[in-house]
Structures are given as C-alpha cells and as structure tokens.
C-alpha cells in the first residue's frame, strides 16, 4: 500500500531558517524518485525498511549508499540524486525541505557534506526527539507558520546534536562579526542601489576575501544572498499590498522592472504577476 502525506509551507518570510515542504511516505516496492535536483536542502529519515540513494559527490561522480531504518540522508541544493525503495522491504520515510541563512553552518557542524550525506545517530534518545519534531511538523501542517518554524529550529538543533559525525564548532568570532555586519547592512539597505563592494567596505574587507568568507559561512555568494533577500521582501509586498509591479521593483532596489521580473522568475520560476495571483491576501 502506498501512503503519502505531503504539504507545502505557505510562508516565504523567514530568512535565517525557512521551511518549504514536508511529508511522510510509505513506499511501494521499488518506488523511486529521480534523477532530480532540488533548490533547497532536503532531509529524509527512514522510519522502517531499506532503500538505496544514488547521489553526486563534490566532484560530480555518482556514489551509492545503502540506507536502512533509523538512518537518513541529506540532499543538497542542485545535487543530482535518485533514491529507490527496496523491492522486498520498501522503506517508509519522513522528510523536510528547508533552507536559510544559518543552514550551511549548522550542517557543516553536523558533519554533512556532498561526500558524507548519510545520517547516523550516536544517541537513540536525541534521534527519537528529532523524529518527534519532524512528525509534529507533518502532523500539524495547518498550525501558524511561527509555530512550525519553532519546531524546525528544534529539529535542526537535534539533528546537529545527534549526528554521529558532528564536529565541534570551529567558527571564528571575527568572521561571525563580519557576517553580522554584512547581513545587517543588507537588511537596512536592500532597497538601495548597493553592490558587493559596498557590503565588503562596511566590513573593511576587499571584495575577493569578503566573498570567500561570506560563501563559506552562509553557503551563498553575497550577490546571491542580496538577490534572495530582495525577492523575499518582494513576495511580502506582492502578497500584502496593491503596489504595482514597478513600484514593488523600486521598493526592493530595482529601478528597471524588467530586471526585477527576470530576477524574481530565476528564484521562484514564475513571474511576479503570476506569484501575486496565486498568493495575494486582501488587506482591508
């Protein structure tokens, strides 16, 4: 019997940690998904049964992983993967797709990488607590967004603490200071015509070095982060106001409406007008 619970998170407003979709599936024998690539991080936890994951490593070579119950696997953005349920003992799994400012750092500390995508726990207690948070999100999908995001934070904390490959934090306090300054500058100036050079200058760093430590810390280039931040703000305006598309573009730092629409479509794969038609909330 093929049982599937699937939900899409309704909000795009969370920068540090955001939820995209989640669900639970009891697969039929041989059920497969892929080859495909995701836009965000996607974690599967295997509740029962067994299966196989084919995933490209950091060099683009496909690796094969046999995965059983009480284990899991992490899929990275833009990574090509295929996963298949066993023909005799098909797996049942629960999954969460998420992303955000702090995700790469958290997964680095948990020991995940393209070459080490498999989750194994060193603590059954912490593992079960983690799974409980995943189940809460899936089973309470109609709860308010802040409630579900709170449980997503708890899930990520337990994932980090329970992973067998977790490593001690090696973060630099100075680097954290630079990232705080950079993100704070973006948050207060995204509507202006700012450049990566401007952001680096706020930190007192040259562009090359700043770009390197920014990507290492946050998993995105400064330009990618700025665009993503502007697009999140644009969705808020499209959803909650009656501003024209041109005025929304100006409000998030784009003097050219066409350039804004192209950037928006690159992120959300539909035009701003289509997004508004699908998501607009009338505010009295």
Please describe the structure with a list of short key phrases separated by commas or semicolons.
10 strands; alpha+beta; globular; Arc Repressor Mutant, subunit A; 10 helices; Jelly Rolls; 284 residues
What does this 3D model show about the protein?
This protein has two domains: 3-162, Jelly Rolls; 173-279, Homeodomain-like (Arc Repressor Mutant, subunit A, Orthogonal Bundle). The relative contact order is 0.11. It has 284 residues and is of the alpha+beta class. The chain is globular. The strands form two sheets. The chain has a six-stranded antiparallel sheet with strand order 1-2-9-4-7-10, with helices on one face. A four-stranded antiparallel sheet has the order 3-8-5-6, with no helix packed on it. It has helices spanning 103-110, 124-139, 145-162, 173-189, 196-203, 207-218, 222-240, 245-251, 257-268, 272-279; strands at 3-8, 18-26, 32-36, 41-48, 50-56, 62-68, 72-75, 81-85, 92-99, 118-119. The protein has ten helices and ten strands.
Please state how the strands of the largest beta sheet are arranged side by side.
Answer: 1-2-9-4-7-10
CATH superfamily of the largest domain: Regulatory protein AraC
> In CATH, what is the class of the largest domain?
Mainly Beta
Largest sheet: 6 strands, antiparallel
Compute the separation of the termini in Å.
47 Å
Low-confidence stretches: none
Q: Determine the mean pLDDT.
A: 88
């Amino acid at each position: 019997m093929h049982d599937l619970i699937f939900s899409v998170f309704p909000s795009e407003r969370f920068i540090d940690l955001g939820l995209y979709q989640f669900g639970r599936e009891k697969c039929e024998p041989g059920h497969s998904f892929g080859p495909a690539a995701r836009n965000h991080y996607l974690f599967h936890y295997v509740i029962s049964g067994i299966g196989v994951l084919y995933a490209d490593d950091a060099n683009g070579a496909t690796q094969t992983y046999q995965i059983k119950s009480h284990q899991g696997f992490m899929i990275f953005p833009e990574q090509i993967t295929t996963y298949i349920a066993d023909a005799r003992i098909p797996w049942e799994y629960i999954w969460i797709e998420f992303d955000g400012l702090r995700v790469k750092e958290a997964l680095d500390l948990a020991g995940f990488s393209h070459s080490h995508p498999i989750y194994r726990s060193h603590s059954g207690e912490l593992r079960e607590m983690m799974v409980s948070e995943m189940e809460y999100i899936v089973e309470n999908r109609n709860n308010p967004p802040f409630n579900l995001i709170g449980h997503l934070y708890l899930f990520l904390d337990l994932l980090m603490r329970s992973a067998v490959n977790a490593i001690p934090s090696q973060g630099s306090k100075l680097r954290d200071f630079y990232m705080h300054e950079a993100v704070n500058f973006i948050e207060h100036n995204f509507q202006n015509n700012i450049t990566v050079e401007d952001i680096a200058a706020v930190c007192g760093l040259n562009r090359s070095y700043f770009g390197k430590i920014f990507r290492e810390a946050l998993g995105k280039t400064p330009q990618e982060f700025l665009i993503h931040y502007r697009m999140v703000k644009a969705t808020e305006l499209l959803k909650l106001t009656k501003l024209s598309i041109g005025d929304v573009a100006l409000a998030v730092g784009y003097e050219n409406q066409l350039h804004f629409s192209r950037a928006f479509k690159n992120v959300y794969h539909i035009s701003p007008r289509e997004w508004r038609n699908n998501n607009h909330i009338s505010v009295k």
